[in-house]
Amino acid sequence: GTTVDCNDGVICTTDACNEPSGTCSNTPDNAVCDNGLFCDGTETCDVVLDCQAGVDPCAPLACDEATNTCVGGTVDTVTVQKATYRASDGKLKVRATSSDQPAVTLSVRFTVGGVPQGPFVMTYQASKNRYQVTIKPTVVPDGPVVTVESSGGGSAVAAVRIR
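^ thats the sequence. predicted structure below, dont judge the formating
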């Protein structure tokens, strides 16, 4: 038969000839592109364009390659105003604020029986100058505690009051 050349010239693809059809497969392998650096993001393999650069995971903050962390930014302060579980209807109500509101997104996480729940995105209520979310978990959160996390990097943990 005729010899088929399956080499596509793209370094990050695994080239194989599928016998006996004589067709080729060129499978992308992102690991080939990984340069092991944190600050330039995750490289990927494009089947036509070869290895593609990643995106700085810290922009617009500075990136510290030695510790694989983003530095130089300020973290907002999150305050949980209320975390109440009402047993009569099974609703968990959480209210919180952020020093950077309303420019940030707040979300709630908790565990039930050791299983992570959330994130549940909180709604910013401009008229009340706070965030709020009402969730209907199957049972009372473990602890019982909730964690409110901010897109600005801050977080707060609060005990849940059961009524």
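DSSP finds one helix and 15 strands in the chain.
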